[in-house]
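PROTEIN DESIGN WORKSHEET
SECTION A - STRUCTURE
LENGTH: 361
TOKENS:
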């Protein structure tokens, strides 16, 4: 029986890998709707190929969810735009394969509660969260009982600036966009270079797996072969390994709880010879600390963090601020933000609007 999919952000990096997975498993998955923000021709070509409906523009993702029914909605839009369509998909009873981590960063508490209430599942698409999800299969009912988990260990490639240059203030946009391991869109690539992306992943893991932030660690692993690990209370650690290829976690999110065969490179440990792990540098990469502080502050502070980061990354790409001003902007905005209680999605949007007004003003 094939699963029906709605694919939001169909023309981006995750969307393209998802389409590839569906092409190799035409009997298992059927795309019913695709959305894109700008790439009209590419989006319409995909729709023709799969006999799906195409949605393009600002509200395309939300309309694609509202006007179609599916088993899984894969959310791979950029940044905060993923929140409303995710909520709409949950309301309609679809499982959500989540690539847009800002959804959990901004409103993890609300969307996970809503998903529980509606009886729908979040299926992680990010390589790290897919790894954890794979490591905890069989832990408690549906892999969600956390009392056996001692800690989650997220691996990070370290990005382009892990070993240099010493002074990051002169980093150019081209340098920041040159990620050593993964080919991704500009927002997530810049976030990877500042390690804000890893901070977002801490928050995403916190909500997806219901593990407190204090029990989530980050380790730098430049080879990007171990995608994350889980240490259990009995002292065992389980890791998930595979060559860096986003089609692996995407396919698992779509095929779960089954695994489907795929013709792609498998791990060759002898050829790799060694895997290395190092501690992240909290001074060079202050974003990890900012994420933890925002989380401790509670309320909508992580939504302010996400909004300030989205603005700052855009400003850096446009040449308006220096690379090191990204973290500074986020820190200053968090320090000035009033407290917004996370009572509803409206509160999240209010925190977002306050942040953008302040930064644009
Ligand atoms: Mg990741």
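SECTION B - SEQUENCE
RESIDUE ASSIGNMENT:
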């Amino acid at each position: 029986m094939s699963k029906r999919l709605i694919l939001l952000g169909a023309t981006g990096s995750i969307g393209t890998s998802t389409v590839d997975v569906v092409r190799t498993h035409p009997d298992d998955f059927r795309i019913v709707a695709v959305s894109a923000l700008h790439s009209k021709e590419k989006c319409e070509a995909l729709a023709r190929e799969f006999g799906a409906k195409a949605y393009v523009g600002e509200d395309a993702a939300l309309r694609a969810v509202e006007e179609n029914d599916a088993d899984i909605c894969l959310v791979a839009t950029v940044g905060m735009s993923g929140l409303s369509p995710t909520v709409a998909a949950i309301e309609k009873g679809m499982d959500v394969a989540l690539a847009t981590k800002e959804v959990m960063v901004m409103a993890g508490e609300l969307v996970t509660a809503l998903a529980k209430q509606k009886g729908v599942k979040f299926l992680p698409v990010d390589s790290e969260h897919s790894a954890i999800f794979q490591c905890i299969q069989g832990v408690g009912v549906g892999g969600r009982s956390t009392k056996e988990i001692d800690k989650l260990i997220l691996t990070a490639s370290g990005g382009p600036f892990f070993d240099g240059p010493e002074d990051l203030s002169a980093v150019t946009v081209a340098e920041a966009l040159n990620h050593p391991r993964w080919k991704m869109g500009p927002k997530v690539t810049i976030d990877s270079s500042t390690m804000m992306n890893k901070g977002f992943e801490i928050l995403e893991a916190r909500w997806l797996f219901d593990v407190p932030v204090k029990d989530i660690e980050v380790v730098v692993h430049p080879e990007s072969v171990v995608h994350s690990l889980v240490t259990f209370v009995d002292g065992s650690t389980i890791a998930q390994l595979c060559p860096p290829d986003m089609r692996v976690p995407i396919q698992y999110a779509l095929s779960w709880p089954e695994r489907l065969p795929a013709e792609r490179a498998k791990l060759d440990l002898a050829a790799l010879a060694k895997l290395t792990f190092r501690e992240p540098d909290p001074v060079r990469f202050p974003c990890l600390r900012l994420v933890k502080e925002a989380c401790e502050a509670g309320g909508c502070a992580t939504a302010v963090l996400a909004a300030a980061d989205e603005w700052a990354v855009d400003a850096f790409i446009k040449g308006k601020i220096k690379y090191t001003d990204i973290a500074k902007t986020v820190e200053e905005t968090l320090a000035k933000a009033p407290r917004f209680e996370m009572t509803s999605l409206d509160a999240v949007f209010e925190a977002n609007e306050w942040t953008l007004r302040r930064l644009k003003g």
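SECTION C - NOTES
The first helix runs from residue 13 to 24.
Residues 149 and 232 are 4 Å apart (CA to CA).
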